[in-house]
Amino acid sequence: MVFITAEIGINHNGSLEIAKQLIDMAVEAGCDAVKFQKRNIEKTYTKEFLDSQRESPWGKTQRAQKLGLEFSEEQYKKIAAYCKKKKIDWYVSCWDTYSQKQMRKFHTKYNKIASAMLVHEKLLKLVAEEGKHTFISTGMSTMKEIENAVKIFRKYKCPFELMHSHSSYPMVTEEANLKLIPVLRKKFKCNVGYSGHEKGAYLICAAATVLGATSIERHITLDRTMYGSDQAASLEPLALKRVVRDVRIIEIIQGDGKKRIWDSELPAKKKLREQLN
Q1: Apex CA 104: angle with CA 98 and CA 110, to 5°?
Q2: pTM of the prediction?
Q3: According to DSSP H, which parts of 189-258 are helical?
Q4: Average pLDDT along the chain
Q5: Which DSSP symbol is given to 169?
Q6: From 3.40.630.30, 3.20.20.450, 3.40.50.300, 3.20.20.70, which CATH number describes the 3-273 domain?
Q7: Rounded to the nearest 5°, which phi and psi values hold at 101?
Q8: What is the dihedral of CA 237, 239, 243, 246, to 10 degrees?
Q9: Of 19-28, 133-142, 198-207, 244-253, where does mean pLDDT reach its minimum?
Q10: Which of 81, 90, 172, 257 has the fewest CB neighbours in a 10 Å radius?
Q11: How confident is the model at residue 201 (pLDDT cuts 50, 70, 90)?
């Protein structure tokens, strides 16, 4: 069964109430999990960058904007409790080793390596040491960089699956390159999913499923016009329901590939072949 993650990321805009609404949206659509992003701002970005100018609802610097989008440990405790109440798994993609260690206390079932972090070997080793099933996005990465990451996870005997991805927001449909899914599966002998950042284009997730994607991850939002760099590349409630519906239908209609005569065919077989000489 394809594992479907609703990527909340930072689309909650620092609001626990919005985060809960997005969790509800994922539950209602039938997703298997929701995912957030966690950063220690001072360790992820340089002081020069954080001090640079950026207008946002939280202030006039990059620091103010980045801090405004981060949940505290106490807020994550509330998220954990809410997801437990709603009976949906949750996990995070951490962007630095400090955050990865900090989030261990929540004992989430899964880990995620964001495309940007694929070359962060120290973080990869830290995640692999935990031994949790890890989704590894491969956007803006070379085959050699992917190979290096795979070697680390295999060294630590940590279960993982790669996720074909494209790191523009939103992705241009013509650059989806979904034929890479079976290529990655054959080369690295592992499951391969799809992490999408396209604008709309429900067909891409459906096509990825046909090509054997074992997991689907899509950003979600309450409204694509909301503040935030990821909102425009996210799915609104009805669109998310459609993606989940289509993936589940495709799983059914693909079947198991074994030739058989179905019981439902027997009346037709009897009727149409009984006069054959």
Answers
A1: 115
A2: 0.94
A3: 202-210, 237-254
A4: 95
A5: S
A6: 3.20.20.70
A7: -65, -40
A8: 110
A9: 198-207
A10: 257
A11: low
